[in-house]
Amino acid sequence: MTRAALDEHGEVVARGNSVPSAPRPPRARPRRVAGDGWDEVLRWALTDRDHGARPDTVSAIDVTIRSDCLGRDALRRNAAFLGFTELIAPVRPPAEHHEPDTPMAEHGFPPTRGRAPTSGRAE
């Protein structure tokens, strides 16, 4: 899915690409994205599509947001608006490939998962 957001003047302030996937029992698919990041969620999405599974999770694959529009929880609100109950976003800090064994928290990105708010408002 590709989505874009416009401001009141019709200017693009954000765009994002995402893929949906379906829930699994915890042993079949952990609810965390391991080191495979995008590759892992793309495998989930393609496998789920091929098996006709009904998705409840959306994973952000590529997101760009204008700096003055950061922090508005647009991704979570959009996921909820589209009927998804969970949003995940695998991230890779710039230059992480130079320090692959450094924990994400030391890069300044603690590993988190966001639940899409069912009310449609940011949590």
In short:
With 123 residues, this protein is of the alpha+beta class.
Structure description:
The chain contains 3 helices and 5 strands; from the N terminus they run E-E-H-E-H-E-H-E. The protein has 123 residues and is an alpha+beta fold. It has one domain (2-115). The longest helix is centred in the middle third of the chain and has 13 residues, at 38-50. It starts with a strand and ends in an 8-residue tail after the last strand.
Descriptors for this entry?
flat; alpha+beta; 123 residues; 5-stranded mixed sheet; 24% strand; disordered C terminus
Largest pleated sheet? 5 strands, mixed
Query: Which consecutive residue ranges, at least 5 long each, have pLDDT under 50?
Result: 113-123
Query: Distance between termini?
Result: 23 Å
- Mean of all residue-level pLDDT scores: 76
Strand order of the largest sheet: 1-2-3-4-5
Helix content: 10-25%
Strand content: 15-25%
Number of domains: 1
Going by helix content, strand content and strand pairing, the class is alpha+beta
In total, the number of strands is 5
Instruction: Please work out how many helical segments DSSP would assign.
Output: 3
Taking Cα atoms only, what radius of gyration do you get, to the nearest Å? Answer: 15 Å
Give the overall shape, derived from the CA principal axes: flat
